[in-house]
Specification:
Shape of chain B: globular
Structural class of chain B: alpha/beta
Oligomer: heterodimer
Shape of chain A: elongated
Strand order of the largest sheet of chain B: 1-3-2-4-6-5-10-11-9-7-8
Strand content of chain B: 5-15%
CATH topology of chain B: Amidase signature (AS) enzymes
Largest sheet of chain B: 11 strands, mixed
Structural class of chain A: alpha+beta
Distance between the termini of chain B: 39 Å
Helix content of chain B: 40-55%
Number of strands of chain B: 11
Strand order of the largest sheet of chain A: 2-6-7-10-1-11-12-13-14
Helix content of chain A: 25-40%
CATH class of chain B: Alpha Beta
CATH superfamily of chain B: Amidase signature (AS) domain
Order of helices and strands of chain B: HHEHEHEHHEHEEHEHEHHHHEHHHEEHH
Number of domains of chain B: 1
Largest sheet of chain A: 9 strands, mixed
CATH architecture of chain B: Alpha-Beta Complex
Number of helices of chain A: 17
Strand content of chain A: 15-25%
Chain lengths: ~525, ~525
């Protein structure tokens, strides 16, 4: 029986992606047609839910997974006669985000109504910022590694077109069996920042890295929790392909992407689909496509096909949003009465890129380690806490944090803050190691014990399990002698000049002492004994 | 006066309320009220009476019966906008202005009739039927228009109230209450005030909260105040005006209530007469009244000059674009999902929307939604909406220039003529009527300026005629002072209402046919 593969099957995405990004400077080679290569173009529209106690224009609470329709004010339900009242906190979050993304902040921005009928949009329009958004013309730098090697990282920049404030919609739940639609308005009116990125990316991996960096920035600022799985960060990708020197191709919009990993997958699938379509003589429709994470492909969303005219109109119930800076601030006002851009700027926390540079500079760790530290929420702080309480050098501590702690966390799917081994316990443990009271293999055993979270200190575990380093020279020499006596072949080999076999003997001594021996000392004893034999 | 009577115990709040409710019942023919909250009103009056007995009234309005146009939300009383869409809708909250009235101890008698969603200038286009002008049943009108024919035709002579706050104007004019709230987007408070012989004040945009007022055009809507005299309007204004955290378009600072002095000197005033208000269709008797008023001011020593507001003639068409666009947007929320009427259509969400809106809105509302959406289409937006906004700016600038040149107050007619008989009025469609009737009032809304209609005289037919004063932004005190001076000079006659009981059976049949 013969199995024939389609081209899609034999050419895995990974290859296409790698090719797209780096090997040929952003181009993808043409397929069988042998024509000019393809340039994929990727732009992103990102909706980040603002982390705030209340909604953008009403006092209702914002909370994830609350009982349906329990967080709905009269305004959120669009009761006639209700009016929007802008939430300061949301404005400040948008200003912070704008500043962090190097945007110019508009001191005067405007609100508009965008009309469409949908069950989860109670007013029949969304209040957004179409004409003059709160922030424009920014940029975001992000790094990604080449060929999946952490050691080869490049930094790229994507331009930020604008950030606009707008309302979130409610949620519709379709019950097909009973042909009912249920509407939950808890999310209706929650503040969103729409971040529009220019089409400066050329593959899924770049887009994913840019989104990941944005996510970290938002989380650092606290302007959004930015958890994709909870819908606090929603990414739509605009994808097109064209030949070098030609105008951009027709783009499609890919929606329904709920993780950074799927974002890369969806974009790369869409690039490949468009190339194939065009090479087979087809055309690309300007359409919205949904990513199906199970099938790993994008599917046309037919219901969104009809051409929408949103009939934009200025929102008459909100005066222009006026922001101030130190220069324009009226004399009798302070930052609690008006939003002062400079006041916010002065209080911006260190952004991830600065934090990484500081970590590298302060502790002498590798740049790629700084990325890993920041990618896990709270890991950098954990690392720095350990450093504060241990004499061990940061370069050695990083190994423990990234290898031991992080792999345990990953294995148990735990967040740093939920780690049973606190930074203090790890520092204690590393101090024992640093003072040569235990060997590193014993330390690993202690760590495993600590992970159980039984409330014991590292020292107690060492005592209980007798893991102290053997300090009795005589006892150690006896153990070494016993090993030598039992391993005649190995001894012969060493004597014949094969020094590598010595490591095996060291290992055996370690095993015999249950990791309690100092490998350096053991090596000295063994060498001495072998020479004297 | 009534307030003083209550304070001095000459009349009890309960008794006052009883009497007003009896009047409401007695004037049912007018169809001024959509709902009457008899029990709640009596309860409120009782509380007020207790406070008076303790000597601790809440304020000047304590125990005073008031009425509110049925496009203001009132918790516990239906708010219908005279539309099938909101029939039976009971709001869970009070509009800010309603709450302020209640906090002052005012006794809310009920909700007054209007054109559906305040779209109209006759108070003839609501689902609860037209409002009848109380002056139709006055001795003054009857004397001038002796009924030519027999009993069956007797009722065809009645005239409209104007609108869209016709219910509120009729309620004041027929003595059922002492103050009423209207709304004013293009003249909806001043127009019926003029036709019903009462004072109608449209304050500066942003002076009074719109929170809870079901919008027509958000950027022009203002809660209006209808009273029997200018002093009353000043009192109510003082209680309602000021910043509301629930309405971001209200003024920031606090408003200082004022009293108008009794002796007023108009010699230092400069009154402007805008020449563009000599519009075609202005009746000769209004023209004459206007000149007479001008002379009054001249004789009293005021400076009266002709001024020009060159862009006035574009106001109506510009208003049409801006109004319908906002209407299209504001009405989008009525989809039958969260509240209001929902059609029985179950095929799809879209078909349910369509049926709900077809059944819920009348032709006027649907027509405005349609044209508004047309103006907002991407390809039309610049051509219509943006252009209309620019024209609006020009109109507003006209006023800025005139007021900047030293003019204090503008004096104009409020309406083209006295109130038309219903049978005449309905010969034209709503759009034509609104365009004609708003012509003199509507520019003040475009510019957000305060304006007041004051009853000035009776027409040859024995119907009220009003004149309008337009003031500078937030200069209500000056505006009302001039209005009060004028009111004192003209001594507008009190309406002499005839008994309406004998028409009751007629109106009953009439109402049935409308609903």
């Amino acid at each position: 029986m013969t199995i024939s593969f389609s081209r899609k099957d034999t050419e895995p995405m990974e290859t296409a992606r790698a090719a797209a990004c780096h090997a040929r400077g952003g181009t993808v080679p043409a397929g069988q047609s042998g024509l000019a290569s393809w340039l994929p173009v990727v732009g992103l529209e990102i909706h980040a839910q603002i982390s705030s106690n209340s909604k953008l224009f009403s006092g209702s609470q914002v909370q994830f997974a609350a009982p349906p329709n329990s967080l709905v004010s009269f305004f959120d339900a669009s009761l006639p006669g209700t009016l929007p009242v802008l939430n300061r906190r949301c404005v400040e979050a948008a200003v912070m985000t704008g500043l962090a993304l190097n945007c110019s902040i508009n001191k005067k921005s405007l609100f508009d109504r965008k009309h469409y009928f949908y069950a989860d949009l109670p007013a029949g329009y969304q209040i957004t910022q179409k004409r003059v958004p709160i922030a424009v013309n920014g940029s975001l730098s992000y790094s990604l590694c080449i060929d999946n090697k952490m050691s080869r990282m490049v930094t790229k920049t994507v331009r930020i077109k604008q950030i606009q404030l707008e309302q979130d919609s409610g949620k519709s739940l379709h019950d097909d069996t009973r042909s009912q639609t249920l509407v939950d308005l808890n999310r209706a009116g929650v503040g969103l920042m729409e971040v529009v990125m220019e089409p400066d990316m050329c593959c899924g991996e770049e887009a994913a890295a840019a989104v990941r960096e944005l996510q970290l920035i938002l989380q650092t600022l606290g302007s959004s929790k930015a958890i994709m799985a909870e819908g606090q960060l929603r990414v739509d990708a605009n994808v097109s392909v064209h030949h070098p020197g030609e105008p951009y191709g027709v783009r499609t919009e890919v929606k329904n992407i709920n993780s950074v990993r799927f974002l890369a997958k969806a974009i790369d699938y869409e690039i490949q689909r468009q190339i194939e379509e065009l090479e087979n003589g087809g055309t690309i429709l300007n359409e919205t496509r949904a990513f199906d994470s199970k099938l790993g492909c994008t599917i046309s969303m037919r219901d969104k096909e009809g051409k929408q005219d949103y009939r934009f109109m200025p929102e008459p119930n909100l005066p222009p949003l006026i922001l101030y800076d130190a220069k324009s601030l009226p004399a009798n006002r302070n930052h609690q009465q008006v939003v002062n851009i400079d006041w916010i700027r002065e209080r911006l926390p260190d952004l991830p890129s600065v934090k990484r540079a500081k970590l590298v500079e302060l502790y002498g760790i590798l740049p790629e380690h700084s990325f890993t530290l920041l990618n896990e929420d709270g890991l950098a702080e954990y690392f720095e806490n350990v450093i504060k309480h241990t004499q061990m050098k940061p370069k050695k501590v990083i190994g423990w944090v990234l290898k031991e702690l992080l792999s345990y966390l990953k294995e148990h799917a735990l967040a740093v803050k939920d780690s049973p081994v606190s930074s203090f316990l790890l520092a204690d443990l590393l101090n024992l190691l640093e003072r040569k009271e235990i060997s590193s293999s014993a330390a690993k055993q202690v760590f495993e014990e600590l992970w159980k979270g039984e409330g014991k200190t590292p020292l107690e575990i060492v005592k209980e399990k007798h893991l102290e380093l053997l300090r009795d020279q005589e006892e150690l020499e006896q153990i070494c002698q016993a090993v030598i006596d039992r391993q005649e072949d190995e001894v012969m080999a060493i004597k014949a000049g094969n020094q590598k076999v010595l490591n095996k003997l060291i290992g055996l001594v370690q095993r015999a002492t249950r990791g309690r021996s100092n490998p350096v000392l053991v090596k000295q004893i063994l060498e001495k004994k072998l020479q004297s034999e | 006066q009534v307030s003083a009577a209550l304070r001095e115990g000459r009349v009890g709040a309960g008794e006052l309320c009883q009497r007003c409710l009896a009047r409401v019942r007695g004037t049912g023919l007018l169809n001024a009220y959509i709902s009457v909250a008899e029990d709640a009103a009596l309860l409120e009056a009782e509380e007020a009476e207790k406070r008076y007995r303790r000597g601790q009234p809440l304020g000047v309005l304590d125990g005073i019966p008031v009425a509110v146009k049925d496009n203001f939300n009132t918790a516990g009383i239906e708010t219908t906008c005279a539309s099938n869409m909101l029939k039976g809708y009971i709001s869970p909250y009070n509009a800010t202005v309603v709450q302020k009235l209640l906090d002052q101890g005012a006794v809310l008698l009920g909700k007054t009739n209007l054109d559906e969603f305040a779209m109209g200038s006759g108070s003839t286009d609501g689902v609860f039927g037209p409002v009848r002008n109380p002056w139709s049943y006055s001795r003054q009108y009857k004397e001038k228009n002796p009924s030519k024919s027999h009993s069956e035709n007797e009722d065809s002579e009645w005239v409209i109230t104007g609108g869209s706050s016709g219910g509120s104007a009729a309620a004041i004019s027929s003595f059922t209450c002492f103050a009423a709230l209207g709304s004013d987007t293009g003249g909806s408070t001043r127009n019926p005030a003029a036709h019903c012989g009462v004072v109608g004040l449209k304050p500066t945009y942003g002076l009074i909260s719109r929170h809870g007022l079901i919008p027509l055009v958000n950027s022009m809507d203002v809660p209006g105040i209808l009273t029997r005299c200018v002093d009353d309007a000043a009192v109510v204004l003082g209680l309602l005006a000021g910043h509301d955290p629930k309405d971001s378009t209200t003024i920031q600072g606090a408003f200082k209530p004022f009293e108008i002095p009794d002796s007023i000197d108009v010699r230092k005033l400069c009154i402007g007469i805008p020449k563009e208000y000599h519009v075609p269709g202005l009746s000769s008797e209004i023209q004459a009244l206007w000149s007479k008023a001008t002379d009054l001011f001249k004789d009293a020593g005021a400076k009266v000059i002709e001024v020009s507001l060159p862009h006035t003639s574009y106001s109506i068409v510009c208003y049409h674009v801006l109004c319908t666009a906002e209407v299209a947007s504001n009405m989008a929320r009525f989809d039958g999902l969260e509240y209001g009427h929902r059609a029985a259509m179950k095929q799809s969400t879209e078909s349910m929307y369509a049926a709900t809106r077809r059944e819920g809105f009348n032709d006027v509302v649907r027509g405005r939604i349609l044209s508004g959406n047309y103006f907002l289409l991407k390809e039309n937006y610049e051509k219509y909406f943006v252009k209309a906004q620019k024209v609006r700016r020009l109109i507003a600038n006209d006023f800025v220039k005139v007021f900047g040149s030293g003019v204090d107050i503008l004096l104009t007619p409020t309406t083209l003529s006295d109130a038309a008989p219903y049978v005449e009025f309905i010969k034209e469609d709503n759009r034509t009527r609104s365009a004609q009737d708003d012509i003199l009032t509507q520019a003040a809304n475009m510019a957000g300026l305060p304006a007041i209609s004051v009853p000035a005289a009776l027409s040859k037919r024995g119907l009220p005629l009003g004149l309008q004063f337009i003031g500078r932004s937030f200069q209500e005190k000056q505006l009302l002072t001039v209005a009060k001076w004028f009111e004192k000079q003209v001594k507008f006659p009190v309406i002499q209402l005839e008994d309406m009981k004998r028409h009751d059976c007629n109106v009953f049949q009439h109402q049935k046919s409308v609903s």
